[in-house]
Amino acid sequence: MGEFFNPVNAIFGPGSFERLPSLIAGRSYAVVTYGDSYFSSLVERLEQAAGRAALVVNNVQANPDFPDVKLGCEQMKALPQLPEVYIGLGGGSAMDTCKALAVSGGNWPLLKEHLETGGERVDELQNPSIIAVPTTAGTGSEVSIGAVIWDHENEGKWGVRSPNAYADYAVVDPELMLSLPLDQTISTGLDALSHALESIWTDKHNLVTQPIAIKASRLVLENLPALAEDLGNIDLRTNLANAAMLAGIALSQTRTCIAHQCSYPLTMYHEVPHGIACGFSLPMVMEWAIGHDDMCDEGLVEVFGEDLKAGHKNFEKFMDDLNVSRDPTSYGPSQAEWNGWLANAVAGAKGQSFLGKVLI
Ligand SMILES: [Fe+2]
Q1: What confidence tens digit (pLDDT) does each residue in 288-322 have?
Q2: For residue 188, how far is its CA from the centre of ligand 1 (angstroms)?
Q3: In this structure, are 128 and 51 located in the same domain?
Q4: Are 164 and 191 in a shared domain?
């Protein structure tokens, strides 16, 4: 039995950013983005074409934290009326913050309770228009329901659990990604690869998600090394942007799996960027995945070739060539700590959905 549902209208390809004014269509809008000058200039470009934004929230940081989201809510509350459209402009952190603010209606206590209780008061959340405009090729947040918000003070990681957090439109313009530096290009590319491969080795994979995940995996593997050498290449950027969107579509159905579950402590305690934290372990997880499920094996063969042992070796070399260490201890934890996180991950829901056999 399989299921597929994704309500996001996607507009993609170089120049898509120009479509934003017609999507806003004269409605009042908020932009949620980063504070750097590159993003200020994008907001300016948008305002010149679409009129002034009712609100610009530009305090977004990597791994959005409770105090930052609370501040955004307060800015919304101070407005005479709430904006009709919310535009998340940036990487996953900006899009996720945008989604959280949009559904909050500026009501921080409500949003906080919804997050901390794992989904209560969902019926009270707002449902305004959301337009997600990624400037990295990785997270897939533009086409998925997820909106991850961290509570660093209390070591919490929460998610908005409402279909209202789906964007109405994803506007995926690879031209916005041209100036992304090397380290973020690699980490976000590995995040996209993680979403694609995790969609293959989870028991939630199905007839629709599998070919999407295969295509996304191949696009990253074939294009990321070349892009790392040629960051301003629009064709390679387009291939990665497409890969991330496809991986996000697969992920929106299957959710992520064990590599993601093991990544969270690395990000929480050792500040490892999300894409590296889940990407570095992919060759290890692939080895555990092989030989336990026919559909998973077939998917891996489509990605890595008929000889999966040789494919696995090539995959290790792919990471080594990108200078991404495959050793968990190189990121900070001891081997014993890592093994503990792995054991916890295996016992959790994401670990249970993993089709392979974890060897600790
Ligand atoms: Fe991810």
Answers
A1: 999 999 999 999 999 999 999 999 999 999 999 99
A2: 8
A3: yes
A4: no
pLDDT for 35: 96
Residue 20: closest CA among 176, 170, 147, 237: 170
| C-alpha 251 – ligand 1 centre gap (Å) | 9
Q: What's 66's domain CATH number?
A: 3.40.50.1970
Distance (angstroms) between ligand 1 centre and the Cα of 256 equals 7
Strand pairing category for 9-12 and 169-172: parallel
* Domain containing residue 135: 9-175
Compute, in angstroms, the gap from residue 79 CA to the centroid of ligand 1: 33
CA of 92 to the centre of ligand 1 (A): 9
Give yes or no: residues 106 and 200 share one domain.
no
Three-state SS at 326? coil
The one-letter code for the residue type at 154 is N
- With CA atoms as reference, report the closest residue to 289 among 116, 164, 120, 281: 281
**Domains contained in the chain, number:** 2
Do 244 and 129 have their domain in common? no
**Distance from residue 72's CA to the centre of ligand 1 (Å):** 24
Residue 65 has a CB neighbour count (10 Å cut-off) of 17
